[in-house]
Amino acid sequence: MAENALTKVARIAAGSAMGATYKDKDGKQQVIKPTGDANYLDLSGVITNSGSSSDGGGTNPDNPSAGADYYAGSLADGEITERNLEWSGTDDPTKDLTVTFNDDPGTKIFGQYDGITILGHIQKIALDKGVVGDTSEVDLNYDSKNTKKDGYYTTTAPYPIYIKTESLPAGQTANVPINGVGEGLDNSNEKSPELNLTFNSDKTLTINHVMGYSNDGDSAGATGFNYYFVVDTLATFSTQGAVAQLPPSVNLFSGLTSGDVMTVGPSSFYENVMDGLEVTFDDYATISSNEKVAISSLKIDKTFKIPKEKLIIGNIINFPMNYLDYADLSSSSPVKSAITGKYLNNKITVLETDDGSSYYNDPHTYYAIDAGVFNVKVSKGKINVMCTKLLGEPSGIWLKYTAKLKVNKVTTYKN
Which parts of this chain are annotated as the region Disordered (predicted)? Predict the structure, then answer.
C-alpha cells in the first residue's frame, strides 16, 4: 500500500533523536532536550563540563589553573608518568636562574612528553619595620579550597607545578602565580610570589622570581614577611589514566642490603606506589664483618618515607639526619664537641663478635665524628640508599670507622 505524506513524516520523526545524553565531570548522566519549539539542542552545558580549553592549560572547575600552571592529574592515582629528572640544584631567588637541561629538550621543549613539572619550596624572610631578618623554609600545601594549614604555605595553584609544552614556546614568557592564602596571616598588604619562565633559543630555560609578601602595609617600614618560590627540581612529565595502587601490606624488597635496593612491584615511573615508599632499616648498622652498632645509638630513625612527588627517575633526595653531637678531630684528649666546643660525653657502644653469633661490648671508646650522610637516588626498578655515620676512636690520633645502615624492608604508604 502506498504511504501517504503524513504517515511518512510521522515515521521519520519517530526514528529521529529527541534529545541527547552525556556524562558530567562527576560521572553522572545528564539529558539534553530540545529547547522551546525549535529542534536544536543546547550543548553549552556539555562544553562547560567537558574541561576543554583553547589556552593549553585546560579548564578544571575543581582544580583551576594558575597562569601557565594547570592540574595535569592525580599523582596519587598514578595519572602522572614519565617523570625524568632534567635539573636539580641551588636556586637563589633574588637572581634569575638559568637551567641547562640534562637532556636535549629540542626546539619545542620536551615535545615528546606533555611538558615539564617543577618542585620547590617557599623561602620566607622576616621583616621588622622594614629591616630584613631571619630566612626560613616553608613547605607548600596544595589545596584548591584554599584552607590554611599550620606550618605550610597554602596555594590554590596546582602543585607540583605542571606546564604544557605548548605553553612554553621559544622566546615567550609563561607566568605562574603562586596564588592562595599562604600562611593565612592577618595582614592588610599581601601579594603572591610568582615565577616567570622563558624557553630560550639556546635551549636553556630562564626562571625569574617575583617576590610576594604579607605585611602590615606601614609605609614608614613594614612588618611581616617576604616570600619567594624557590625551584628545587625540574622534570619531564606525561599523563595517563589512573592505575591500580600497591597496598602497604606488600613488601617490595626481600633481603638485607645497603646501596642498591632492588624493588619488585613498582611500575617504571612509580605511578602505582600510593603516596610513596616507606623504607625500613635493620636495627644495626655494620662497621665490619664482626662489628656493628645499634642505629638507636646513632639517633637514626628505623623508618623513613620517600614522597611520591620526589620519586623522579634520576632524582637524588637528601634527607636530614637527626641531631647527634660529634667530636672535634683537632683534639683527642679531652674530646670536645665540634658544635659547642664543650666536653663531649655521648659515647657510642660498638658490639663485636668472634664467632659471628654472640656479640659483646667492644671495650674501646667511640664517638660520632661527623654529621653523617643520608641520601637516596631514584632509578627504574631500584633505589640507592646511602646512610652512613663516621665513628672515631681517640687513641693518640683518631681511628676512623664507617657505620653503614642496611635496608630490610620497602613498602608503599598512604597519608
Answer: 49-71
Mapping DSSP to helix (H, G, I), strand (E, B) and coil, where does residue 245 land? coil
Q: Under 8 Å CB-to-CB from 276, ≥6 apart: which residues?
A: 305, 306, 307, 308, 309, 310, 311, 412, 413
pLDDT at 406 (0 to 100): 98
Which contacts (CB < 8 Å, 24+ apart) does range 45-49 have?
46/22, 49/22, 49/24, 49/25
What tens digit of pLDDT does each residue of 283-340 get? 999 999 999 999 999 999 999 999 999 999 999 999 999 999 999 999 888 999 999 9
The SS3 call for residue 7 is: helix
pTM above 0.90, yes or no: no
Cα–Cα–Cα angle for 213, 60, 243, nearest 5°? Answer: 110
Give the lowest-confidence range in 54-63, 117-126, 197-206, 282-291: 54-63
The answer to whether 198 touches 172, Cβ cutoff 8 Å, is yes
Helix (H) or strand (E) holding 45: helix 44-50
How far apart are the C-alpha atoms of 98 and 281, rounded to whole Å? 39
Closest by CA position to 226, among listed 133, 91, 90, 118: 133
Chain-centroid distance, C-alpha 282 = 26
Q: Is the pLDDT of residue 357 over 90?
A: no
**Residue given cell 620519586 in the structure block:** 311
Report pLDDT digits (tens) over 92-133: 999 999 999 999 999 999 999 999 999 999 999 999 999 999
- The answer to whether the peptide bond before residue 169 is cis (omega within 30 degrees of 0) is no
pLDDT score, position 395: 86
In Å, how far are 16, 23, 236, 270 from 34, measured between CA atoms?
12, 18, 46, 48
- Tell how far CA 331 is from the center of its chain: 42
